[in-house]
From TrEMBL:
Keywords: ATP-binding, Cytoplasm, DNA damage, DNA excision, DNA repair, DNA-binding, Excision nuclease, Nucleotide-binding, Repeat
SMART domains, per database record: AAA
Family, per entry: Belongs to the ABC transporter superfamily. UvrA family.
Domain ABC transporter: 169-464, 478-779
Top-level lineage group: Bacteria
Protein's name according to its UniProt entry: UvrABC system protein A
Cellular localization per UniProt: Cytoplasm
Main location: cytoplasm
InterPro entries listed in its UniProt record: AAA+_ATPase, ABC_transporter-like_ATP-bd, ABC_transporter-like_CS, P-loop_NTPase
Amino acid sequence: MAHLADDHDVIRVHGARENNLRDLHVEIPKRRLTVFTGVSGSGKSSLVFDTIAAESQRLINETYSAFVQGFMPALARPEVDVLDGLTTAIVVDQQRMGSDPRSTVGTATDAHAMLRILFSRLGRPHLGPPGAFAFNVPSVRASGAITVERGTATKAVKQTFSRTGGMCPRCEGRGSVTDIDLGRLYDAGKSLDEGAITVPGYKAGGWNYRLYTASGFFDPAKPIRAYTERELHDFLYREPTRMKIEGINMTYEGLVPRVRKSLLAKDREAMQPHIRAFVDRAVTFTACPECGGTRLSEGARSSKIAGVSIADACAMQISDLARWIAGLREESVAPLLTALRHTLDSFVEIGLGYLSLDRSAGTLSGGEAQRVKMIRQLGSSLTDVTYVFDEPTTGLHPHDIRRMNDLLLRLRDKGNTVLVVEHKPGTIAIADHVIDLGPGAGAAGGQLCYEGTVAGLRASGTVTGRHLEDRTALKEKVRTPTGALEIRGADTHNLRAVDVDIPLGVLTVITGVAGSGKSSLVHGALPGQAEAAGQEVVAIGQEAIRGSRRSNPATYTGLLEPIRKAFAKANGVKASLFSANSEGACPQCNGAGVIYTDLAMMAGVATTCEECEGKRFQPAVLEYRLGGRDISEVLAMPVEQAREFFGTGGDAPLPAARRILDRLADAGLGYLSLGQPLTTLSGGERQRLKLAGHLAERGGVYVLDEPTAGLHLADVAQLLALLDRLVDAGKSVIVVEHHQAVMAHADYIIDLGPGAGHDGGRIVFEGTPAELVADGTTLTGEHLAAYVGGAAG
C-alpha cells in the first residue's frame, strides 16, 4: 500500500503572475533534472528564481523568530495562487563576486581558512594563531592603563596588548599599490595658456583651470617641461593653500592630490564613461613592492611547511596545490588535510583547477563565479534539496560541458531536485523533464509552450523545438584582413610569451578551453597594442549594469533625453517635467510608481500609487502630448512600436530617438518596454543592452566577451547578423566565444590551449574555421568538426 507521504512528488505552481508570467500552471517532478527553455525574456527566471526559489527562501526565513528575521532581508511573497511541494532551495546563480581586492578565490571558499589553520599548526618558525596568516588582519600593538574595580576600591593597572596579523602594512592586504601616470595629466610640451592639462573637467578657461593659471606659482605661458624643480612641485604636489584668485577666496592644491580627491576617490562604475576611460588610462596598478603582490606581511611569508610558505601555496595552480597537500603526512592534522584535499579536488573536478587561491574574486567571470559557488555543494550530504542553476554552462568550452552535465546528474542521483535555466542543446539533452516558455519575449511571453521529454520538445514545433538542431555552416568565403595588430611576448597571467597577429577589418574569434588564456590575451595584451597602433578599443564585458529600479532602457541608452526635449518643444514647457526623477515626478510616490511600505521583520509591501496609478508622473504633466501620446504611454511602448512612432512616417518623427531605437532592435531587444526597470532584465538582456549602447561609439576595434551568454538558439542568428554589420561598416570585431555557431561564422580563429592554467597559454591554431576543422588536432577543432558535420548531415 502506497504511503501518503509518497503523494508529494511534484512541485505544483498554479496561477504564477510574477513579472511577465501569464497565470502559469506547471507541475515539476521532484528528484529529477528539469531544464527550463525559451527565448531570452520569455519568463524562465521569473518562474524559477523569482517564484519557486524566492518562495522557498521566504518560507525558510519565516521559521526563525521575529527577532532574527529583523536582521534578515525581507522577502515579499511572489505573485502566485498555489505553490506547494517546495523543498529547501539552494540557488547557484551567476552574480559576480564582490570586487573588493581582499576577496580572493581562497577567501570565497573554505580553502584559505583551512590553509591558515594548517600553517598555524605546522609552519616553522611558529608565528601564532591562524590570524597571523590572514591578509585581512593587521598586526596591532597597544599599551596603556586600565581601571580595575575590586570591591569598593579601584586600581589603575598597566596593560600591553598585541595581535599578530598577516596583513602587509604597505598595501593593507590589497596586493597592489596605485600610481598616477603623470604623462596622462598634462602635455609637458605645452604651457598652461596653451591647454596643457588634459584631465576631464579642466577645460581651458574653466574655474578648475584658472586656479592654476592665476595662482602665481609659475608662469602660465611657460611650457611645463621648462619648469624649475620648485615650480613643478608647486604645480603637482603643493599642499592646500588658501589664496585669493580673481577676487574670490579659493584653496589652491597641487594637481595630483586634487585629481586623487576629485576623481580617484569615486566608485569607478559610477563615473561617466569619459571620466572612467581617463581613470583607466591615468591610474596604474603595480604589485606592492614590499610583499610582491602576495598581500602578506614578511612574517607570514617566512613561516614554511616543507619549504613552502602560505604565499607560495596560494600562488600555486589549484591542481598543483592539491597534489602538494596530498603529499603531506602529519597525523596531528589528518582531518584538516582530508577536508582541504576534498575542497581542492572539487575545484579540479568542476574544471577550475587552473585557478589559484590568491586570484581576486572580482576577476572571475560569471560562469567561473557560479562554479566556485557549486564547490560547497559537491560533497554535501543533503538530499531532497532543490538546486537552482542559472545557465551553468556559461563560459564553458564544449569540451567542458560534458563534465558539468555529469555534476548536475550526480546531484540529481543523490535524491535532489535540480532546476536548470539553460539554452545549450548539450545540457537540454540530458533533462528528464523540459518546460518551454514563450512563445515570445516580454509581453509576448510568459506562457507554457511545452512540457515533457526532450524527444517531445524536438517534435513540438515550438521556437525552441524548431531550433534545437540548428547548425551554422562554415563560411564559403571569408573576408580579407585590412591589417593586423601585432602582439609580441604577451605574458599576462598564464600566457607564455605569445606572439600573434590579430587581423583587422574582419570577424576574429578567440577560442580555447576555460582557463586557456583567452581573456588574458584580449584584456591584458590587446588594449595596449591597439592604443600604440592608434586604434580605439571598445570593450564590452560581462560586468553587471549599475542601476536602481528607477533606471530603464530609456535612461540607460540616453533615449529619454531627445524624447524629453521633443515633448518640451511641442508643448512650450521645460524638459525636466518629463523626467520621473525630476520636476515631473508624482509627489506621492516620488516618481517610483509604487509605494513601498516597510513592515520591519516582515516582508515589505509594494502597492501601486493611487495618485498617479503607477504612471510615475504628475497629472498635469500627463496632459502634455507628443504625437497624441503622453510621456507615460511612450515609456510603456515596446522598442518595435516606438520605432514606428518616432520613425519618418510615424506620429512623432524624431531621428535622434529612432537611431537609438534601431540599435536596440539590432541587438534583439525589440520587445523591451522603454520604461522597464533594469533590475527586471535577465543577464542576456543586460548584455545586449550594453552592446546596443556601445554601437554608437567610434572605436575601430570592438572586443566582445561571450556575447551569446543568455541568448536563445533562435537569437544567435540575429547576433551574427549584427556582428556582420559591424564588420561591413569598417570595424574590427574580436569575440571571445565558445559557441560553435560563432566559430563557424568567423573569418579568422585563434585557438589557445591546449589545456588550462599552466597547461595552456599557447597558440595552438591560427587560421580560418575551415582550416581548423581540416586540422582536427585541437579540442576546439574536434567539436567544431562535429558541429558542422551535423549541419552537413
